[in-house]
């Protein structure tokens, strides 16, 4: 605690110091006069004696006090700057922000006026920082904090509580439309940041807690706002969520998954399932998508939706992804020679400096024909760093590896990259396929197919489950389909046998003929 934390105690301390210095100066001055006049100080006029000693005392006391308290104030200010102010951005530090949250919680109890604590975080900041370099990462944080201040009310308290994480206190929310403010804030913070060397895009997630409803302990409140933030992140980019009690149970499950993931990799509990991709033109299976599964000895089969988000946040997804790539390329030798193997690539892999080296090394070690390897990359992953993504895709093309844009239409919907980036397929998201029986869904699919044809790439639709969907996709001109209608994800053994021409083939329901596109 600094000296300025208790003004009354600080004043008493200063007066005591001045008094002690004054007494010491008086004794020192009396001794000096005795020495100067040979012990005949008593012969001097009393008024002169008092004046000389008083002057010496005042001068000594003033000089000592000024010197001492200048050092005290400087030290106190240094301690405050070091502990309460974030050096990089100038906003409150985590320690200071905890104090502000505690004060706000106490105030809300006294006056009955609720407040909100907003936790806003840059998704995968560690990976971004590693990819662009720490100096550029610092510039990104400074720009992020400056934009936060610019788009928040001037009376709010704001602090940096993590590497790319900020906490904001919004008092008396009745005067503010919270939903509109948060939506606008997310929209503004996800606009690209102009850094000294490049343009950097980021995704953000936001968690919200209410004071005092969700607690009064500042540490608990920060934990709960982070739980809400993690929940929002699970639901996609640019989302926000308000804390609910059941989120604590989800957090415990996530902690268990995080603790088990690395062990699972060591114990070789991960397995790959394969789902066929069927050509509507050639009427045959032309590829298989490798799908990751986790077979836990106690919990059984764990789906990717449960553990992949945790793996991405902890960074272990890069190790798992390398295993998936290597295993799928090895399995390709057991699949038909005329079939490609499609592998999903995590956004974190694109941020790795040695990503292309890893691909090249895997091709060399497994002996797979690069033309049989297809990497699926999402729109959102590409938009995190467009320049780097474009460079990587050109390097993949030089290796002979094809690229498919996954979940097309659900990300940024920025068509500029369709011209800048080299790729071979657009993968129509299952959300559009499920709405094919509606006019809007059919129109969207037809538009995507026409767009793909215009730029010279093929289309593949995922999540095809009914003959009606297959028929409408065929009528729209979609090239390839994938879904339960053509085969469920299954172990390699189910499809490896089909290298034998005499083996039974995958069911291939032919689409019903349609005279014209609906």
Structure report:
- The chain is an alpha/beta fold and 518 residues long.
- The chain folds into 3 domains: 3-84, no CATH class; 94-243, Reverse transcriptase/Diguanylate cyclase domain (Alpha-Beta Plaits, 2-Layer Sandwich), CATH 3.30.70; 269-499, EAL domain (TIM Barrel, Alpha-Beta Barrel), CATH 3.20.20.450.
- It contains 19 helices and 17 strands.
- The chain has an 8-stranded mixed barrel with strand order 8-9-11-12-13-14-15-16. Strands 2-3-1-6-7 form a 5-stranded mixed β-sheet, with helices on both faces. Strands 4-5 form a two-stranded antiparallel sheet.
- The chain starts with 6 loop residues before the first helix and ends in a 22-residue tail after the last helix.
